[in-house]
Amino acid sequence: MQFVDTVIDGSGPHLDRFFTYRVPAELRGEVRVGQYVRVPWGKKERGALVYRFREALPAGLADGEVKALSSVCDPRPILGELQWRLVAWLREFYFGTWSEAVRCLVPGPVLQGLRKCSKPRAEKGSEKADLVREAPELTAVQLAVWQRLQEGLSEGKTFLLHGVTGSGKTELYLRATQWMLERGKSVLVLVPEVALTPQARERYRSRFEGVVSILHSGLTDSQRRRQWWRIRDGEAKVVVGTRSAIFAPLKECGL
After folding, report:
1. What is the pLDDT of residues 216-236, one digit of tens each?
2. What is the DSSP string of the chain?
């Protein structure tokens, strides 16, 4: 038989452990780590996240006591192995619970949609093109800095760009973003406060039409859910946001 350890979607210290369920025959091959599933809970059902597979039951637990998973809400895993490792670290370091740590990585609106087993709708007027607009010519100073940046980007080096407002730093950030996109990588752009997000958003959207996503506290629940799934599904390769965007589910983040 095949069993899975799950983290129940809910609050309270009594839920701060793994709950083991059996994978029924009809769901074999469909259940994956990180998926949001429905599980029996008393006379009702609850949502849960698949943490790991196990071939044998935990000590002290008999096969007859183990109930079977009810259904898979969405075939797409929302947490991978790396994200689960981060969740485990957050829980231990901050003395939290499994569900509290999960909510750091998966926004509430996303979980709400999964609880209803609803899929995000496409946003009206959303960009669909995958277009990188032509970059302007660099000044002599920018060109000298860009040559150093370009050499270091391939080696994963860290840089601090110093310059007064209007000296051309943003264009170098845009160049570095384009360099990463051309190599199949994604990019995370953090701004210090929500008020600066519109300005940064327009700069990046004007250059990289169709692949930019925005994450900040000013979004509605439906907007946050749509943006999160765009990032998770790889449609958005550039994320602009405040510090909470550090948990964005970017794939192959290079910068």
Report:
1. 888 999 999 999 999 999 999
2. --EEEEEESS-SGGG-S-EEEE--GGGTTT--TT-EEEEEETTEEEEEEEEEEESSPPTT--GGGPPBP-EES-SS-SS-HHHHHHHHHHHHHTT--HHHHHHHHS-HHHHHHHHTTPPPPPPTT-----EEPPPPPPPHHHHHHHHHHHHHHTTT--------TTSSHHHHHHHHHHHHHTTT-BEEEE-SSGGGHHHHHHHHHHHEETSEEEE-TTS-HHHHHHHHHHHHTTS--EEEESGGGGG---SSB--
Q: How far is CA 95 from the centre of its chain?
A: 23
Strands 238-241 and 212-215: parallel
Alpha carbons 189 and 199: distance in angstroms, whole number: 12
> Which pTM was predicted?
0.86
> Are 70 and 39 spatial neighbours (Cβ–Cβ below 8 Å)?
yes
**Amino acid identity, position 69:** L
Rounded to 10 deg, the angle between the 169-181 and 197-207 helix axes is 50
End-to-end CA gap in the chain: 43
Angle at 21 between CA 15 and CA 26, to 5 degrees: 140
Residue pLDDT, tens place only, 75-92: 999 999 999 999 999 999
The pair of three-digit structure tokens given for residue 96, joined into one six-digit string: 């939290």
